[in-house]
Design a protein that fits this description.
Number of strands of chain B: 0
Helix content of chain A: over 70%
Largest sheet of chain B: none
Shape of chain A: globular
Order of helices and strands of chain B: HHH
Order of helices and strands of chain A: HEEHHHHHHHHHHHHHHHHHHHHHHHH
Shape of chain B: elongated
Largest sheet of chain A: 2 strands, antiparallel
Oligomer: heterodimer
Structural class of chain A: mainly alpha
Largest interface: A-B, 13 and 14 residues
Radius of gyration of chain A: 30 Å
Structural class of chain B: mainly alpha
Number of strands of chain A: 2
Number of helices of chain A: 25
């Protein structure tokens, strides 16, 4: 009985404890070695486990680390489950995670809280790994909440600025709303099956034994949790604000790994969702809406990280579309390619911000291609990958999603394809817009900023190169067919087969159209874009205001809550009821004391006389009662 | 009336005399003396009972009371002296500072 899986999970925890408790005392070199070394070791162990898995005929590895508690004959174990799906996830988390750790050594070099940063990153990895390796929903949920905590800590990493602290709070609170749904779903499943082990629940659903709960209800409840974590409508508002954290955090947590937890959850529970067509439809609709909505917002943003944040929301929407139409493997495929190119984009953005000394506004950039060439080339490759230019990674996964959105026998339809294709067009457009405004054209930088522009250190650029290479070739690894532990891909409808090649062509055309559109509008110093903007003023205001969702939530939810808190809970409940009753008690005690104090005359003879009377009374009483 | 009853009556008389003195007299020194009277009334009864029953415990208790009474007077007299020094009077009514 080996404990390799447990080791994968526990090593980052050890890193957290070491860096958190000793890091400040033992210096940055120690922090670097521990903080980067342990995730790398986890990654190597994960590869070893994958070899075991493939060598053992793909029988999932199961490891029980600890029995948490036993209630009424049922035991709650902390058990880890390693099949091909968790293998892919674990490799992404530890692999991309390790790369980003190394990058952070360069990015955070000057920060005074270097040890705290790595401690938090390691803590995040620990929870994320328990999320993807957990066998039961309970362990998954612990990881789920834990990554939320780590995310909160890292968004608010520079907590001296109240804006960052508020963004962290917003992320935390928004996630809690989703978690309520997740918890209810878990309760429902436990009530129905008496177990939280996901493989058993899936088996119970797929075996066709009449389930005692509605799969759709459980599915929708779990999906509510997923909307919170994966920033889908209506709980997407936290992710763009989460960009307040350091950029490596945005890359690791808010692009590559944590936000994909919702996708992983749905894919992991695919046995349930196969029996839940209504829930799948909800997922499809939400996913498509989110993808389109976020892509339109990304077109009008001017903060380099905000563009990427909305792009992440949009790509997550794509993954949910794939989940909704039953192509679970394809969703994980896109998750996997997205992890590479989006991490590369965010880290590239970090390199740009680093070069410009903290500037994030793309209106004040431009012409950076020659000044920071490595960042430019890697960023361009990742941009082409997300836009879907063949043969880069994003092309394969996105094309498969488009195809299944069109032809899947489990809910694919032309209109769904149309929305997804429009989103893909927008994606290509806003990504190339970003590329153009940041790196090409004439410089719009402030003179003193321009003077300091420098390429990032080797620790950062090497990571960019690795990730760009992975974004370029990652698509050739056929993830959907590797994931045999998931339900097979839905068969396309027979009569639609002849559409497959034309659609492939169309998706290439779409990507190139986006590129051409961006070149048309933002080439030559963006003159054409400036000319068009006044004519679409209303639309532009709507988009750059992010459809005013935050304002609407503020009006509908936050203000009434403030009002109730102020009027009912503070003024009535706190001041009148609680303060009033306490003051009343104090006044009662004062008055009683005032009355009783009159007995104390200070006259010695009276006291003596009272003692005499008391003694006589005692004597009389003792005679009476013999 | 035999000897025991006589002695008990005497001890009770001493006690009541002391008690009345404490309650009625105003002079602090006199009140202290009256307290001594009460204690000695009790001592007398203890000795009497010890005689009657032929045991030693009553007599031992008397010695204990002597010691305690001596200690009490050793503290009480200086306190009274200090009070008199500050207020220049021995009247107990002058010291009603503990009135609530």
């Amino acid at each position: 009985m080996t404990h390799l899986l447990t080791l994968i999970v526990v090593l980052p925890l050890a890193g957290f404890l070491l860096n958190g408790m000793l890091g400040n005392r033992l210096g940055n070199r120690f922090v670097t070695v521990v903080g980067c070394g342990l995730p790398v070791v986890s990654f190597l162990i994960a590869i070893r486990c994958l070899a075991d898995l493939l060598g053992g005929g793909s029988v999932p590895l199961v490891e029980t680390a600890y029995t948490w508690t036993r209630v009424a004959g049922r035991s709650f174990d902390i058990a880890f489950y390693f099949d091909r799906l968790s293998a892919v996830m674990t490799l992404i988390v530890t692999g991309v995670g390790s790369l980003i750790h190394v990058y952070s050594t360069g990015y955070m070099k000057e920060d005074k809280s270097y040890a705290r940063f790595f401690a938090y990153l390691n803590l995040f990895l620990f929870f994320m790994l328990s999320l993807v390796l957990g066998r039961s929903l309970l362990v998954l949920f612990v990881g789920w909440e834990g990554v939320g905590l780590a995310s909160y800590l890292l968004i608010g990493f520079w907590f001296e600025d109240p804006v960052n602290a508020r963004a962290g709070k917003k992320a935390f609170v928004t996630n809690r709303i989703g978690d309520a749904g997740f918890l209810l779903g878990m309760f429902l499943l436990y009530w129905a099956f008496g177990t939280l082990d996901m493989d058993k629940i899936n088996a119970a659903f797929t075996s066709g034994a009449a389930p005692v709960v509605s799969a759709s209800l459980a599915g929708i409840l779990l999906f509510i949790g997923a909307t919170g974590k994966s920033a889908q409508i209506p709980l997407h508002v936290w992710l763009p604000d989460a960009m307040a954290g350091p950029t490596p955090v945005s890359a690791l947590i808010h692009a590559a790994t944590m936000v994909t937890a919702g996708v992983y959850l749905v894919a992991r529970m695919s046995g349930l969702y196969l029996q839940a067509p209504e829930a799948s439809q909800v997922i499809t609709v939400i996913g498509a809406l989110t993808a389109f909505f976020a892509a339109t917002v990304a077109v009008a943003q001017t903060d380099i990280k905000k563009v990427l944040a909305y792009s992440t929301v949009s790509q997550l929407g794509f993954m949910f579309v794939a989940l909704g139409v039953g192509a679970y493997g394809v969703a994980i495929f896109h998750l996997y390619t997205h992890a590479f190119f989006k991490a590369c984009l965010f880290l590239g953005a970090g390199s740009v911000i680093h070069a410009l000394g903290g500037e994030q506004d793309i209106r004040k950039m431009g012409g950076l291609a020659k000044r920071i060439p490595i960042t430019f080339v890697t960023f361009a490759i990742a941009t082409a990958a997300i836009a879907g230019i063949p043969p880069l990674a994003g092309f394969f996964s996105k094309d498969e999603i488009l195809w299944f959105a069109f032809g899947s026998s489990r809910g694919g339809s032309p209109w769904l394809w149309a929305v997804a294709a429009a989103t893909a067009l927008l994606t290509a457009f806003y990504m190339f817009r970003l590329l153009w405004l940041t790196f090409l054209g004439a410089s719009r930088m402030a003179p003193e900023t321009e003077h300091h522009v420098h390429e990032s250190p080797w620790s950062m650029t090497s990571i960019l190169i690795v990730l760009a290479a992975l974004s370029a070739v990652g698509g050739f690894f056929d993830v959907p067919h590797f994931l045999i532990s998931l339900p097979p891909l839905p068969t396309p409808r027979e009569e639609l087969h002849h559409f497959e090649l034309p659609l492939l062509g169309i998706s290439i055309v779409i990507a190139l159209t986006g590129l051409a559109g961006a070149a048309f509008f933002f080439g030559r110093g963006g003159a054409r874009a400036d000319a068009v903007r006044p004519r679409l003023a209303t639309l532009h205001r709507l988009l750059s205001g992010k459809y005013f969702v935050d304002e609407a939530y503020d009006l509908v939810i936050a203000r009434p809550l403030y009002w109730i808190s102020e009027r009912v809970f503070l003024r009535l409940g706190d001041r009148v009821l609680i303060d009033g009753s306490l003051h009343g008690l104090a006044r009662l005690a004062q008055r009683t004391a005032g009355a009783l104090s009159r007995v104390q005359t200070g006259n010695l003879h009276l006291y003596a006389f009272l003692v005499l009377l008391g003694s006589i009374a005692c004597l009389v009483w003792s005679f009476r009662h013999g | 009336m035999d000897r025991v009853q006589l002695l008990l009556a005497l001890s009770m008389a001493l006690f009541v005399l002391g008690l009345l003195g404490v309650i009625i007299r105003r002079n602090l020194l006199v009140m202290l003396m009256c307290m001594e009277l009460m204690l000695n009334g009790v001592n007398l009864s203890l000795v009497t009972f010890a005689q009657q029953t032929g045991t030693a415990s009553g007599a031992v208790l008397v010695f204990l009371i002597f010691v305690v009474a001596a200690a009490e007077i050793a503290i009480a007299i200086p306190i009274v002296l200090l009070l008199v020094r500050s207020r220049r009077t021995l009247e107990a009514d002058a010291y009603a500072d503990l009135k609530g």
